Amino acid sequence: MHMRRLRIAITKVLAIIFMLPFIYISFRKHFYMNHEDEGVDVDVRENNNTWINHLCPKYSIINTVNKTLNWRPLTPNTIFFTETSCALKFSPKKACAVESAAHHHPHRPVLLLVTAPAILHPQPLLQIVEDLENVELAYLDLDQVFSEPPLKSWHIQRLWLYNEEFTSVFISDAARAELLRRFGGTYLDLDVLTLRPLPDLQPYLGRYNTDMVNNHVLSFPPRHPFIQVGIMTKPEVHVDLQLYVFQ
Questions:
Q1: Residue of 68, 90, 137, 242 with fewest CB within 10 Å of its CB?
Q2: pLDDT grade, residue 128 (50/70/90)?
Q3: What is the pLDDT of residue 157?
Q4: CB 189 within 8 Å of CB 216
Q5: What DSSP element (H or E) covers 129?
């Protein structure tokens, strides 16, 4: 009897020990989801762009001293990046991408568009990027970006929320295409390092390998037929991620 009780007790202890890592991971994930941006909160009470609450649910309504950003449209000569992950901080990889583009194109404006209406400030890496003469940070206001049909209704209905895990990807792909359609310019992903000046002639797409091009590097004049056709088909966001138009 005593041996049986001992085996049961040992089994329970082993079960608890086995579950501890999962309990810790679950607690850590829950804690950081709710507290990782404490002290760097963005005040969205005065912001009428209700899409922020859908795309960036971790933003709180607490006033803090952050740097507020404003929307600014592109020009056909602009090199631009989009940050749609709602991050308030800037990583070294992203800083290198922006700096390399600015370095090789000193006479072209370089615009970093972010969905965060305010960012944690100061940040050493971001300060370095901002101090570059031809670099500017601006607010990626989705109401401004998707203010024309056909993507206006797609945005108003929040169809980009169909798969929340990849929402920022859908927004990034749609935003870059619509910005190129309306304003023209050169788009680069935030993991693209520029090693030499980009071609002056448009249009062009970046080559992923010998058999494939993708949308990580795009350069088009305003209202180019290629982009127009892509936008008119509207982004088809599917839950199974098998197809959506801008990838």
A1: 242
A2: confident
A3: 87
A4: yes
A5: helix 124-130
Query: Quick check: bond before 92 cis, omega within 30?
Result: no
Residues 174/167, Cβ–Cβ less than 8 Å: no
Convert 87-111 into a string of H (helix), E (strand) and C (coil). CCCCCHHHHHHHHHHHHHCCCCCEE
CA distance 102 to 131: 11
Provide the mean pLDDT of the chain: 76
pTM comes to 0.75
Fold (CATH) for 65-232? Spore Coat Polysaccharide Biosynthesis Protein SpsA; Chain A (3.90.550)
pLDDT tens digit string along 187-244?
999 999 999 999 988 899 998 888 888 889 999 999 999 999 888 876 554 444 434 4
Token pair in block for residue 84: 């749609």
Largest distance between two CA atoms of the chain: 86
Identify the H or E element spanning 229: helix 225-232
Q: How far apart are CA 84 and CA 75, in angstroms?
A: 20
| In the chain, where the domains are located | 1-36, 65-232
